[in-house]
Input
Amino acid sequence: EVHLVESGGGLVQPGGSLRLSCAASGFNFGTHCMSWVRQAPGKGLEWVANIKQDGSGIFYVDSVKGRFTISRDNAKNSLYLQMNSLRAEDTAAYYCARVLVDYISTPFDCWGQGTLVTVSS
Amino acid sequence: EIVLTQSPATLSLSPGEGATLSCRASQSVTNNLAWYQQRPGQAPRLLIYDTSKRATGIPARFSGSGSGTDFTLTISSLEPEDFAVYYCQQRREWPLTFGGGTKVEIK
Output
């Protein structure tokens, strides 16, 4: 069974940093593009970043460019999101999502349960 | 960026009724549109991709149609578990964008 499990969320002060991790199991991680999607409390979904199978072809939403870095370790079946210079508006549940095989960007056919990031002083 | 506008914001229906949800794009996304369902407290779930392809395990009562800028998700007969929020999403160009969502609630 396919599983994506996020970790690393928590409370951080504005300007601080966090590193999110996503542990994948039940499928060949290295054959899928992967993504991070976030959802502010009570709000809709917002795509954050994508990374291709080999770690190239990285894309970000403008609001996080220069602050967030997506990466992956195929040997460890893991996806990461390094978040720096955090702002209050980054407060959200962050979901790790798998891109359907043979697709580059979406659709997202499998999602983790999310990890909550709260940016507040 | 491509803006996706979903309507209505809320749909109040009874179990057994049909539901029609709309998603309009600010420019053509050809057929590169997906639909997701999100139940309260849960992660989103892929329903439809490439406008009309059902994802694995999705019941036949869910169907998608449209092209260009206007798309529809149809639920032929609502089951109790279908009351949720539905989002459309485009992959025609970066950044990937989602619509604001339609909540299907029990009347």
User: Anything to note?
Assistant: Residues 23 and 78 of chain A are 5 Å apart (CA to CA). Chain A has a mean pLDDT of 97.
